[in-house]
Design goal:
By secondary structure, the protein is of the alpha+beta class. It contains two helices and nine strands; from the N terminus they run βαββββαββββ. A hairpin with a 2-residue loop joins β2 and β3.
Length: 158
């Protein structure tokens, strides 16, 4: 079963942990000096925040899967749709050891597909060295940060 993943770069981790803990009505599953994660079940979301990245906002989106077969299925879907698949393989990122790959949507938004293998004591030690210009919170292979426009208070929602 898949779990939707969102990673947001924040400037103030403590204030953001307090906000999201109230919003989700549950404590984070993991908190580090530069990172926090909630593993929500309703809806199934892996929501992570960190002080890593270039500017505040959505860093990347993705799907966390339960096993290697689901990860292979997502990779096959990407290949069938002629998407560029950026394989990262087994790597340590966001205090977890995972097998992962990335795709980039037409607007440049990075999507991470990953199968978590174990927890890790460090934020990241990628087995694939990417140039600094192509890294962010978790070595997202893209050149530009994700921009999510925010509507002004006077505009209609959604």
């Amino acid at each position: 079963m898949k779990r939707f993943h969102i990673h947001v770069h924040v400037d103030d981790l403590a204030a953001s942990v307090a906000f999201y803990t109230k919003l989700f009505a549950v404590e984070p599953a993991r908190v580090e000096a530069d990172y926090a994660k909630w593993m929500l079940n309703d809806p199934r979301v892996n929501f992570a925040i960190s002080t890593r990245g270039t500017k505040a906002g959505v860093d990347h989106l993705g799907f966390q899967v339960d096993d290697a077969d689901e990860l292979a299925e997502l990779a096959e879907r990407a290949r069938a749709a002629d998407m560029v698949l950026l394989g990262q393989g087994e790597t340590t990122c966001c205090y977890a050891r995972s097998d992962k790959h990335w795709i980039i949507d037409p607007q440049g938004i990075a999507w991470e597909h990953f199968h978590t293998l174990d927890s890790a004591r460090v934020y990241g030690e990628s087995t694939q060295q990417l140039p600094p210009s192509r890294t962010s919170a978790c070595c997202v292979p893209r050149g530009n940060p994700v921009d999510v426009p925010v509507k002004s208070a006077g505009s209609a929602c959604c």
